[in-house]
Amino acid sequence: MVLKFDEVYHQDCLVGLRQLEAKSVDLVFADPPFNIGYEYDVYEDKLEAEKYLDWSREWTREVVRVLKPEGTFWLAMGDEFAAELKLIVQREHRLTCRNWVVWYYTFGVHCQNKFTRSHTHLFYFVKNPRRFTFNADAIRVPSARQLVYADRRANPRGRIPDDTWILRPQDLSEGFSPEEDTWYFPRVCGTFHERAGWHSCQMPERLLARIISACSRPGELVLDPFAGSGTTLAVAKKLGRRFLGFEISEEYVKRIRQRLARISHGDLLEGSAEPLRSVPGSGKALGASPGTPRRSSAARKKHHIPQLPGFE
User: Both ends of the chain: CA-CA distance in Å?
Assistant: First the structure.
């Protein structure tokens, strides 16, 4: 079977990857099952740990094979197997990890007897640590020199994102800026306009746009081995990249094709370009903008918001 670009195929990712020529893909974004018992329609997400890791070795090996020598691989992974997958790709497949990014989101997954899950790990790997695509100008953000100090020495193009972390963007609205490697994008929840309505693990378009814009060029090939809701392919199409996806659910493939048929190159991305603007402030003392009403003690109790020391 000859695979055509700009298409999603109803195939197991291993079957699909093995049909691709070696060194033919510019960028891979993979958001595989996390092996946490999630209820997919045709996949059992609760394998024995060693079986899951063996399967992960197999498909990531194929990803490395199809990547071009200057290619890039982004891997999304949950806490349970993040460390193991990072070591497999680095030590066994010999890719270089340039960043371990944390995607922080609101509307986290409620957990009993432990902290609510509100992040996903995003590993940024390259095949050649000296030759790879990174379009810095596509993701630059204003620097503190520009915004705060009006310093003439500031680079007028802005700065490249760097790293830090913070508890919650609601609690420090000016401290969770887009130039950091803890990225804030809200999950695509059921009430969001962006939600496709048939896949509950949908990635935000703005998150994929940052990755695709930085690590590929127009006309290059973006591959998603676990197409899911089709967000990677949709964003690649909007940004003028070629795309290819594999998905084992026949129903998901049908829906993805419908989604792709509705969009064109150059269409606007879904979601807010500045997601913090949509986050409600939690009080002036916590960095909220002037005029934002503070929550009363009664409101905190109603919404199960803990009172932090020194913030009453």
Answer: 65
